[in-house]
């Protein structure tokens, strides 16, 4: 490379570097925080360690917890069904259960599972069952709704099953 070529490369690099530097300086955070506020040290109350006997006394003074079994919350499922997916496809061809039951798809195969509703590839019949991709060893859950829906693995559409919520 000639001296003229080297000089041209150096000038181009200097211009690009100056432009990048200017961009970084000008596009920084433009908050209105005064400089003095940035330099102040926050004040904290002095923290005194509690010795173990005081800590135990404080715990004893707290109200005891109810030891009754908690009532079923509204968000808890009525039941749980696990559908295993293997290298051969879904372990069951059809499930019929009460609507509101949680259905857990467990991927026991060596490839990804993407549960999707029929028809393939539109997945429009039951969009609530168009679930996230599940890697091998992973699982995904959904809640069974009223009606019958055909499902398949979007990544292997020949692997199908049917879900029915009563």
List the strand order in the largest sheet: 2-1-4-6
CATH level-1 class of the domain at 80-165: Mainly Beta
CATH homologous superfamily descriptor of the domain at 80-165: Cupredoxins -  blue copper proteins
Distance from N terminus to C terminus (CA atoms, Å) equals: 80 Å
Secondary-structure topology with pairs:
Layout lengths: L2 H24 L8 H5 L12 H10 L18 E7 L2 E2 L3 E4 L4 E6 L7 E3 L21 E5 L3 E7 L2 E10 L1
Parallel strand pairs: 1-4, 3-8
Antiparallel strand pairs: 1-2, 4-6, 5-7, 7-8
How would you describe the overall organization of this protein?
Residues 66-72 have low confidence and may be disordered. This protein has a domain at 80-165: Cupredoxins -  blue copper proteins (Immunoglobulin-like), CATH 2.60.40. With 166 residues, it is of the alpha/beta class. The chain starts with a helix and ends with a strand. The protein has helices at 3-26, 35-39, 52-61; strands at residues 80-86, 89-90, 94-97, 102-107, 115-117, 139-143, 147-153, 156-165. The chain is elongated, with a radius of gyration of 31 Å. Residues 43-77 have a biased composition (Acidic residues).
Features:
166 residues; alpha/beta; Immunoglobulin-like; 4-stranded mixed sheet; elongated; Cupredoxin; EfeO-type cupredoxin-like domain-containing protein
Give the structure's gist in a few sentences.
The protein has a domain of 86 residues: Immunoglobulin-like (Sandwich), CATH 2.60.40. It contains three helices and eight strands. Strand 7 and strand 8 form a beta hairpin.
């Amino acid at each position: 490379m000639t001296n003229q070529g080297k000089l041209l490369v150096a000038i181009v690099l200097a211009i690009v570097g100056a432009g990048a530097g200017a961009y970084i300086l000008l596009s920084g955070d433009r908050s209105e925080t005064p400089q003095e506020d940035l330099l102040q040290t926050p004040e904290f109350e002095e923290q005194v360690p509690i010795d173990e006997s005081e800590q135990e006394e404080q715990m004893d003074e707290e109200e005891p917890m109810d030891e009754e079994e908690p009532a079923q919350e509204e968000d808890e499922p009525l039941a749980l069904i696990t559908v295993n997916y293997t290298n051969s496809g879904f372990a069951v061809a059809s499930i019929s259960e009460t609507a509101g039951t949680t259905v857990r798809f467990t991927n026991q195969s060596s490839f990804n599972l993407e549960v999707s509703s029929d028809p393939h590839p539109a997945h429009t019949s039951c969009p609530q069952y168009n679930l996230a991709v599940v890697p091998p060893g992973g699982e995904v859950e959904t809640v069974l709704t009223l009606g019958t829906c055909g499902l398949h693995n979007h990544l292997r559409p020949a692997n199908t099953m049917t879900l029915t919520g009563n």
